[in-house]
Specification:
By secondary structure, this protein is mainly beta. It is built from 5 helices and 21 strands. It has helices at 63-73, 116-131, 172-186, 233-240, 243-246; strands at residues 2-5, 8-22, 42-55, 78-87, 139-143, 155-158, 163-166, 194-196, 199-200, 248-253, 260-261, 264-270, 286-294, 299-306, 316-324, 334-336, 339-342, 344-352, 359-367, 372-375, 378-389. The strands form 4 sheets. Strands 1, 2, 3, 4, 5, 6, 7, 10, 11, 12, 13, 14 and 21 form a 13-stranded mixed sheet that branches. A 4-stranded antiparallel sheet has the order 15-18-19-20, with no helix packed on it. Strands 8-9 form a two-stranded antiparallel sheet. Helix 1 (63-73) crosses helix 3. It is globular.
């Protein structure tokens, strides 16, 4: 499905389910000596985001563009740290795969002009590369001459997906702005996000067409009218909500203490697209799962993404299940989905018809063996994520 108006292009892309679970995972608390005194309050949080850069045929990459992006993202306490740079060839991701630029969806393999199908595969390739990093965290920036085969956009990203696609715009300043803009989108500055107390973004995630820091002077204005790089406090607060998912975080305290690392638990995996059981719709094709929690918090924030949005006019009855071995002991718990030692199963059930309705989403934690259940501490959310584009 393509949503298009005179000044925008947004491609309906993925369905994301977000939940907060209390599953009884053991909590590790840092020693008192590793923390600032209790009376001190954190006044700032810094985020270092590992970055893998992939350069596709015809694409160019400049370290200066990353420096420019960092100057903008510094407003949100974020800094990109390039940890790996790769030149994509025919065998990247497998023979003839070109890192996802493999000719899918009517494209030409290895030409750096990306179709929708090729971008989907690039995101899967990028996600798998990120999961190979030591802490599995970060983002992927893919440089190619033509991010979208159907437009002249200098950049494109999917809400919450860690892979963005950009082109070199001829100078570090403009390219850095496009990088920062797309990172804003993946850090949930999407459709209708709050810009300030009286202003919301439009339905492509861009600030209004007007002068000033909440309009054309904002980094989330499209590049064809952007004349500034401002981020508002509300936008910064929204981006900071994703800091544990993509970056390594630290707190700076109100007194002169050194910044303290915020210890956390994190796990993620990326699954190939299109590998659901034969004959099954793509709402059963799980693409990515991300789990994160501060070690001092017994709750887990869980996000998983499936390939297609829920069909609007079709009745569905689908369950997504995550199993947990909370005590790392195969002799306890029960047997679930081919695995022994499963103590908890988190289940998200979606039933009904999206349009015209009714539509119901529920979440339960099952204790094994025995099957005793209780609802999630917070109800799961189902979000349809869009591909957001910058505009030349």
């Amino acid at each position: 499905m393509i949503k298009q108006a005179t000044n925008r292009l947004a491609i309906l892309s993925l369905l994301t389910i977000v939940a907060l679970l209390l599953v009884g995972v053991p909590v590790t608390r840092p020693a008192a000596a590793d923390r600032a005194p209790a009376q001190a309050q954190p006044v700032a949080r810094g985020v270092q985001i590992p970055v893998i850069v992939n350069v596709y045929p015809g694409g160019t990459y400049s370290e200066g563009a990353i420096r420019e992006a960092n100057e903008i993202l510094r407003q949100a306490g974020m800094r990109l740290v390039v940890v790996e740079t790769n030149t994509i060839n025919a065998n990247s991701g497998g023979a003839g795969e070109w890192g996802g630029d493999n000719g899918a969806d009517g494209g030409t393999a290895g030409d750096g002009t990306f179709t929708r199908g090729e971008r989907d595969r690039m995101r899967t390739f990028g996600g798998k590369e990120l999961r190979d990093l030591p802490n599995q965290k970060g983002i992927k920036i893919s440089f190619g001459p033509t991010p979208s085969s159907t437009s002249t956009t200098p950049g494109i990203s999917v809400h919450r997906d860690p892979t963005i696609v950009v082109k070199d715009r001829g100078n570090d300043s403009d390219t850095g702005q496009t990088i920062a803009h797309e990172i804003g989108h993946l850090m949930t500055l999407g459709e209708g996000h709050k810009v300030d107390g009286t202003t919301n973004a439009n339905d492509e995630g861009h600030t209004p067409k007007r002068e000033g820091d909440t309009g054309n002077g904002n980094i989330m204005a499209p590049s064809n009218r952007r004349n500034g790089t401002h981020l508002t406090p509300d936008q910064i607060a929204e981006m900071q909500r994703r800091r544990y998912v993509h970056g390594k975080c630290a707190s700076q305290w109100e007194r002169a203490y050194p910044a303290q690392r915020e210890p956390q638990q994190f796990g993620a995996t990326t699954d190939p697209l299109g590998d659901q059981q034969a004959g099954m719709p793509r709402i059963y094709d799980i693409h990515e799962v991300v789990l994160t929690s501060l070690q001092t918090d017994p709750n887990l924030a869980v996000q998983f993404t499936v390939f297609d949005p829920m069909p609007p006019a079709v009745y569905v009855d689908v369950a997504y299940n995550l199993g947990f071995d909370v005590d790392d002991d195969l002799s306890t718990g029960g047997f679930f989905a081919g695995h022994s030692g499963i103590d908890r199963v988190a289940s998200v059930v979606i039933t009904g018809t999206l349009d015209p309705g009714p539509w119901h989403v529920s979440g339960l934690i099952y204790y094994l063996p025995g099957g005793m259940a209780h609802p999630f501490d917070e109800p799961p959310q189902v979000v349809t994520d869009y591909a957001y584009v910058d505009l030349d």
